[in-house]
Automatic annotation (TrEMBL):
It holds the Pfam family Beta-prop_KIB1-4. It comes from Panicum hallii var. hallii. Residues 68-319 form the KIB1-4 beta-propeller domain. This is KIB1-4 beta-propeller domain-containing protein.
Amino acid sequence: MASLGPWVGVPPDLLRFIRGVCTAWRSALPAAAPLLLTVSGPDAPRHRQIQPGQLVSASFLMAGRSFHLSELPTGGEFVGSSNGWIAVDPIWPGIFLLNPTSGEGFDLFPLRNDDDEPVLKVVFAPNPRPTTTPPWRSAARAGSPTRDMRWTVMDVAMAEQRDKLADLVYDAGGGKVYCVTAHGDVHVFHVPGCRRRRPRVAPLHANRAGGLFAPPYDTASKLTGAKSIFLSGGSLHQAWRNTTIAFSSMTPGGGRFSMAKDEIVVLKYDPERRPCWDALADLGGRSVFVGKNNPVVLRPEDASGVRPNCVYWIDERSRFQPMVFDMATRTSTPHPFDAEAPGPARRPLCWFFLNDKISH
């Protein structure tokens, strides 16, 4: 029998479908295929909450097909997805990890802190099994496991009052986690290569002279309610989304800056510039998938059906509707997958990839 090679762990019904599609699609799967992870069953009463026994499915966006993966042995808050794994916070005893393509799952050691802040998002190493020493991070706090299998929890010093962590991305190649705040500030969590060394967190902008954002983005940084951070082409990027009604503000020189509801601004970090974050007109032909998943950047040639210069996001305020923001038209529209109408019986959770490291 021939070896499955990179197809190991892919569900049999998905494998059968892959064999039946064209060569271009097969070459894009499984690593680069953007999937939409969903759970079946009645809507949970709480935000992002899922119930034990719910069936996890993956919708293949390029073909409008869905594939059943496995059942969730535990319930709780859905807090992350990375490299084919998903994370659920059952409140106690700790984070539960599940590989829905294989059904493998296990509990991490307890993650609690004195004020019992909720875990908002978790990112982790490509192989998070207990035999490895992966970095784990939470957007509520920054933390990592120590030799005695306990968490090291560190507070992040905010430059501005009432600011808070909003999103994070794990850079496996650099051994770092980048966290962005609600105001667009960035902190770097350095992952030690040796267990004996203590992890450390530091602000990315040690020298704030000249400001972080030029007008009008210095104002927009406080008005955009959703922040995402991702790596593309070796550089840090932020995506700011206006989650409320359209707004307009004056700019220096008498101009006016406006953002419609669900409009997104993408900024790129350049440490040699002042201000060091500059808004982009496009993503150089790439597109990014953001949300509770560790963000993944794709080019149209990486996976058929991916549109260039788009931000794919999940509208958590509207039944987790999958959305696409086109940087050319400056508009967000429902993803064509929404035509399948998941409804109460099938609720989207996040974008899902078997391998996060594709183009960066």
